[in-house]
């Protein structure tokens, strides 16, 4: 919101100064709390409080073998921030909502996985001033293997809980095709968790994952080997492009189009790779056409624009001439227009439950 007057023409208001300081240092407090959540996840502290119940720092030290004094300060920070519940005896615990968000990795609401890549995300701050000067950002491999693991843990809960039982049955004719034997491509597959779930559920079908991240593909191959799946294959997209022979019955692009340097070219390639009666399922961040709408209607917009500078827009500008859409840049109107330009005639928004993503069903 614009101020009443330009700052230079307005005298300093002590109350405004106090409120502004609270805003700025509150942001620092949020960053510190996020760092503590990362530590809690990495050290298994949330799981320990979930499995064995609330604990004092002494009790948690006995359970985990970690140093009591360090645990005491961590618990006090998480309690003061409202992440943990606590009582007068300084016994700290998790609410039911905290359990599914921070401890139960099998629940669809689990979100602590996104904190696992926090050190790598913050580390790129040292490299971003050069990006601001040159205009060229960093690819996702700049975050290293742990960055790929964090991306996987962040998105996996939805895939594991809702993709096969909820999303696939709502795409007309797709479940039947998969049961009979279909060809499926996941473009921007990351660690391959979505395809693993599909490959397990539909053994008669064949699944292909494409990505340009070496670290993500290494994780995908490891996940495939551990799962023992023979109907699943992964490809480095810069070495093996999508085949332009209209072979795929189903194409997936999950949380990746806004990150791409040339999303329009990828959409054209998908059109050449998909059957005339095939289905393309897009999942991407919920966004609005204007900045004002994003700020007004999305309470997470500060986080999203920050993620964009650190990761999403940076990736989308990691090559000269990159599209640079950014985290909130791929709104429905643009997605619809880009799909039309790529040769698709049918575009429908799907009402799937997800706190961050919108879903679109696209057909020729």
What can you see in these coordinates?
This protein is α/β, with parallel strands linked by helices and 364 residues long. The chain has two domains: 10-104, Orthogonal Bundle (Arc Repressor Mutant, subunit A), CATH 1.10.10; 125-363, Rossmann fold. Helices cover 49% and strands 14% of the residues. It contains 15 helices and nine strands. A seven-stranded mixed beta sheet has the order 5-4-3-6-7-9-8, sandwiched between helices. Strands 1-2 form a two-stranded antiparallel ribbon. Strand 4 (206-211), helix 11 and strand 5 form a beta-alpha-beta unit. Helix 3 (57-64) packs across helix 4 (68-80) and helix 8 packs parallel to helix 10. The radius of gyration is 23 Å and the shape is globular. 38% of the residues are buried. The mean pLDDT is 96.
What's this, in brief?
With 364 residues, the chain is α/β, with parallel strands linked by helices. Helix content is 49%, strand content 14%. The strands form two sheets. It has a seven-stranded mixed beta sheet, with helices on both faces.
Keywords:
single chain; 364 residues; Arc Repressor Mutant, subunit A; 2 domains; two-stranded antiparallel sheet; 15 helices; 9 strands; 49% helix
